[in-house]
Amino acid sequence: MGGGLVTTVAIDGPAGSGKSSVARVAAEQLGFHLLDTGAAYRSLAWLVLERGLDPYVEADVLSLLDDFDYAVDVSGETQRFSVGGVDVTGAIRTERISGAVSGVARVPAVREAVNVRFRALIADARPGIVVEGRDITTVVAPDADVRILLTADEEVRIRRRIGDVGDAAGVAERLSARDRSDNQVVDFMTPAPGVTLVDSTHLDFDETVQAVVELVRTQERA
Ligand SMILES: Nc1ncnc2c1ncn2[C@@H]1O[C@H](COP(=O)(O)OP(=O)(O)OP(=O)(O)O)[C@@H](O)[C@H]1O
Ligand SMILES: Nc1ccn([C@@H]2O[C@H](COP(=O)(O)O)[C@@H](O)[C@H]2O)c(=O)n1
């Protein structure tokens, strides 16, 4: 890929690697939009549970896909997500949804449907967008100007996540299980050709953001 104008920054990585928090601050510094693709999968998992269905039963998930009325509002200070007009921004971050979301995400028709929406949002974003998830560098936006696999050692990611939820019980097992399940669908542990690995194991938060922003600046100068 040649250098010059950067409009799309793709970031993938395992659970707790800092994708959403690092992408958010990097997007602010770049003056770019932010697309949190995991929120779409989480919102569908929320709807499946809300309807009393099983996220690990493909037919249950497919029965809701056509009516999945998902919206993202980026007009305020933080992104807000809604399903059928119900604000699910907080609800989709619970451990209950984290335990359900892999079931929804492994359904090929779900992935195809949300990817269509993601690509449309990416195409419309001006002046640019940071997109984070699991398959952005490889499937959703393989032609992104900057492609990053953001990772950290598992024990570090678990420690950071425990800091988020304030309760260590079961966090390690759930994070590992989610990565194992998600990794059967898409490989986000090994950088694909052309993807830059950013390992934040020994970086603090600001250093990690700077590593991402510097990759964009380097690409712009190339
Ligand atoms: N380099 C870093 N140093 C210290 N803390 C960090 C670093 N990067 C991220 N964090 C913190 O780690 C926690 C997990 O980050 P975040 O929620 O952004 O990860 P994620 O990859 O989006 O996770 P998930 O895929 O599970 O949603 C957050 O509290 C974040 O502030
Ligand atoms: N591109 C993506 C993004 C997410 N997923 C699935 O959604 C789950 C939640 O993602 P978070 O980034 O919010 O943790 C994740 O565990 C995957 O199951 C995906 O498949 N592809």
Automatic annotation (TrEMBL):
Task: Return the Pfam families for the record.
Answer: Cytidylate_kin
Gene Ontology terms: biological process: pyrimidine nucleotide metabolic process
Q: Determine the domain of life of the protein's source.
A: Bacteria
Q: Where in the cell is it found?
A: Cytoplasm
Q: Its catalytic activity? A: CMP + ATP = CDP + ADP; dCMP + ATP = dCDP + ADP
Main localisation: cytoplasm
The record's CDD domains line, in alphabetical order, gives:
CMPK, NK
Every copy of the Cytidylate kinase domain together lies at: 9-217
Residues that, per the record, bind ATP? G13, P14, A15, G16, S17, G18, K19, S20, S21
GO CC term (a single one): cytoplasm
Q: What GO molecular function annotations does the UniProt record carry, in alphabetical order?
A: ATP binding; CMP kinase activity; dCMP kinase activity
Q: What is its EC number?
A: 2.7.4.25
Per UniProt, the enzyme's principal EC class comes to: transferase
Keyword terms, alphabetized: ATP-binding, Cytoplasm, Kinase, Nucleotide-binding, Transferase
By sequence similarity, the record places it as follows: Belongs to the cytidylate kinase family. Type 1 subfamily.
Q: What is this protein called?
A: Cytidylate kinase
Q: Which organism is it from?
A: Agrococcus jejuensis
Lineage of this protein's species? Answer: Bacteria, Bacillati, Actinomycetota, Actinomycetes, Micrococcales
The gene coding this protein: cmk
